[in-house]
From TrEMBL:
Organism: Timema poppense
Domain COMM: 53-117
Family matches, as PROSITE patterns: COMM
UniProt lineage: Eukaryota, Metazoa, Ecdysozoa, Arthropoda, Hexapoda
Listed InterPro entries: COMM, Commd2
Protein name, entry field: COMM domain-containing protein
């Protein structure tokens, strides 16, 4: 925010002080801000973020039904290979309970992404 409105040294210190930072923290933030100001500005001026996108997903379920030591052991694992559009492959392995939890969290994130607040933020960065 400070970079986008081109705050001078005094305004920056007032802003940081208003947020409740100590004098030492204020000096540290000010030094860091001024040393990285151009990098922050160039990052904010880039039109889009270069985030890898989903391309393909291969999966399988591995189940060990038993062994000599444990006759009634059932250990299902879901193995997945997520392929991204930049050529990178990400291997994942989890149990069904964690997979269910991940699915619920991703569905919740998808619902939030369809919300009004998210659309406003997306319009700001376009």
């Amino acid at each position: 925010m400070c970079v986008t409105v081109q705050l001078d040294e005094q305004d920056f210190q007032d802003s940081v002080l208003a947020l409740g930072f100590s004098e030492q923290q204020q000096q540290t933030l000010s030094t860091f801000y001024h040393s990285k100001k151009e990098e922050i500005q160039s990052a904010l001026l880039r039109p889009t973020l270069d985030i890898p996108h989903y391309k393909d997903l291969d999966w399988r379920v591995d189940i060990q039904l038993g062994s000599r030591a444990l006759h009634h052991q059932v250990t299902p694992l879901v193995s997945m290979k997520l392929s991204l559009d930049n050529g990178q492959c990400v291997p994942l392995q989890t149990d069904p309970n964690n997979l269910l939890h991940m699915t619920q969290v991703l569905e919740q994130a998808l619902q939030e992404a369809k919300g009004q607040h998210t659309r406003r933020i997306q319009r700001t960065f376009k």
